[in-house]
Every structure is written in structure tokens, then in C-alpha cells.
Amino acid sequence: MTTVADDDWGYPLTSTSTRASVELPAPRDRPADSDGLPTGAWLKDLEEDGYRGYTWSGRPMLVPLLLTVVVMLSTLALAWLWWDRIPDQVALHTGADGTVDRWGDKTIGNVLMAPLLGGGGMLLAMAVIMAVGAFFRPRPPVGLAQGAHSLGSMVRQSATMDIVLRSTGWSLLIFSIAISLLEVPRWRTGYENSSPIWLIGVAVLAMFVIPYLLGRRVREMVDRELDALGVPVGPETERELHAWRYVAVVDDPGAGLWVPTGTPSTNWTVNIARPAGKVLAFGFLAVMAALGMFLLLSPLIFG
């Protein structure tokens, strides 16, 4: 067993490393291939605690969470340094064109309301998502409860959850930075310049770019995990990996319009193999992309 060295996104740099201080399950408890279920002590552990990857860090939101704290502390520091430059009347609301349409007195609450509410909201969202992700780890079937019916399915779900949490963390960090940058530069200039609303457009578009970039690593993560366990990939796992190759949505002709994203079935996603699923998924993407581009191009639109 070796210690993991992570890259900038928090992934191991080596293909065979396992999480520090975590022992791999006994070979006798591992299935013949990924289409089978673990047995013995490993199965009991999975029933109690759910599946956690051995070859990724297990802290998918730690780096963006810490950076969000840094953004908030930096915002507070700049407010203290530039307090005398901030005019007696501060912006309480900014229109889509970046100009202020509502003013208020210079108080700590009015000055810091947007940055701290934004950053605090992002931190709260990260904490809730981390707690949910830890609670709803993929599990094998227990009694009558619904569960993953193969090791490969649990590994795929765990890798997908890691990607979703990591993508969410970085996306929320970008939103936190954008919200702070809407206000902080204007403290120094006395609100002479319009608010850079286009930064919110960047944050909206990042919500799609980041999951796309990270989502391509799910197959790599699954292969690395099964390789570390010494378990070959089974045909059912191959089929599942192909169906879930887009991470956020499923492409499975044999399933209905709505498909659970994991086990237990707490969240559902749309099946783009169905015509209605294509309309819902690509319609949502089109609307959000249009919103992001509108905000991004707002300086040109409003002149």
C-alpha cells in the first residue's frame, strides 16, 4: 500500500496507489469479476458503510471548500482596508446592464451583504452536499432494500459521486469568486464603474464545462479501482459504463424515462435514450447555455 499523491483536481497521480491507511479487502472476499458481489467481511463492511473508492482521495470538495473560505476572508480584509474609500451610499441591487438601481447607507451589512451571503451560501451548499454524499454511498442489497447488484456498479456509482461532488465544489467556488468580484472592485472606485455581470455568465457556463472535463475520468477511475482490487471488468459493468458515459444522464434503451442515479434510489436522472429524455436534457442545456452567454455578453448587449 502506498500514499496517494494528488493532482490539481485531487486525483491520484499513480495508477495503482490506494488511500493511505486503508487496507484492500482480502482476496477471498473479492468476486471473480466486477459483475459479482463481494463476500465475507468486505460485504458486511459495504452493507454498513457503503462503498468508498480505494484509489481516489475521498475528499472531493476539500480544496474548493478551503479556497472558498480564502475568498471570503480576502473579501473581509479588503473591506477593512478600503472602508474609507467606500462612499456613504452603496449599491444594494444591480440591474442586468450592470448599473445600480437601488442604493443604501454604508453599513457593514449593506457593504458585505452580497459577498458574504454569496460565499456563505456556497459554503453551506458544499457542507450539505458533502454530508449527503457521505450518507448515500452505494451499497449492496440488504434484505428487501434496493442496492447495487455488482461490485462494478458500486465502483461506477462511487466514482460518479466523486466526480459530481468535485464538479459541484469547483463550480460553487467560481460562483463565490464571481459574486465577490461583482462588488469588491467597486469599493475602491466608489461605484463609478458598472458591475461586471459577465462574471456570473462565466460561472454559469463553468457549471457545464467543469463536469464535462472531469466526467471523462469516470471510466479511468473505475478501471484503476478494479485493477487495484485485482478484479477484471465484467460484461455487465461494461454495459453500465457505456450507458452512464455522460455521468449526469443515462443512455439506456432498456430503461424508462427516469432512472435512479444510484443505490439507494435517492436521486433520479433523465434517460436520453428516450425521445422525451433528449428534449428535457438538451432543452435544459440550451436554456442554461443561453443564459450564460447572455450574461457573458451583457457588456456588448447593453453597450
Automatic annotation (TrEMBL):
Pfam families: DUF1648. InterPro entries: DUF1648. The chain crosses the membrane at residues 62-83, 112-136, 163-184, 196-214, 279-302. Residues 1-39 are annotated as: Disordered. Residues 71-117 form the DUF1648 domain. It comes from the Bacteria. Keywords: Membrane, Transmembrane, Transmembrane helix. This is DUF1648 domain-containing protein. The lineage of its organism: Bacteria, Bacillati, Actinomycetota, Actinomycetes, Micrococcales.
